[in-house]
Amino acid sequence: MAYLRRPSGPSAAVTSGWRHDVVDLASAPDRGLRPGLAAKLLFAFGVAFGAFLAARMPVALLARPAYATPLTTTEPVPVGGSTDQAGAANRAGTNVNQFLHARAIQQFEIYHPADRFWTFQLIEAALFVTVAAVLIGVVVWRVRRRTI
Helices marked H in the chain — which ranges? Predict the structure, then answer.
């Protein structure tokens, strides 16, 4: 363990500033992690994780779907089975995909194309940088208001 101390005595006039001394670790008592400190650390981690979720989840669940209109594709169910189901059959042995295809049932997919990835990243980065700047402004304002 190391600590800093201000030099004193006759050498203080010659040297200015701080001197770095090393303490013998073998002679230092081993206290370990105190239970009170561990509880405070766990509480702080919990608060930080809760704040992260409180900031992140509304963006992921509410804002992200509104960034751009997703694309929709429809196509008929393939007769031979899809790659996901590989010819699934019902109890009678009839291929389910043949049954759906005969009745003109279509499958659809709602998605955002890959070329929108960086646009979404920039939107979210701008959102979080703006929130961080506002919070820093509030902290600076509160600290400057405080009287000592």
Answer: 35-58, 96-102, 117-145
Kindly list the domain boundaries of the chain, sorted by start residue: 68-112, 114-148
- In tens, the pLDDT along 31-51 reads 666 778 888 889 999 999 999
- The secondary element (H helix, E strand) that includes residue 106 is strand 106-111
Nearest of 139, 127, 82 to residue 105 by alpha carbon:
82
Alpha carbons 108 and 85: distance in angstroms, whole number = 16
Indicate the residue type of 83.
T
Distance, CA of 16 to CA of 127 (rounded, Å): 48
Decide: 4 and 20 in contact? Cβ < 8 Å: yes
> Higher model confidence: residue 111 or residue 7?
111
CB-CB neighbours of 77 under 10 Å: 19
State how far the Cα of 65 lies from the Cα of 68, in Å rounded to an integer. Answer: 7
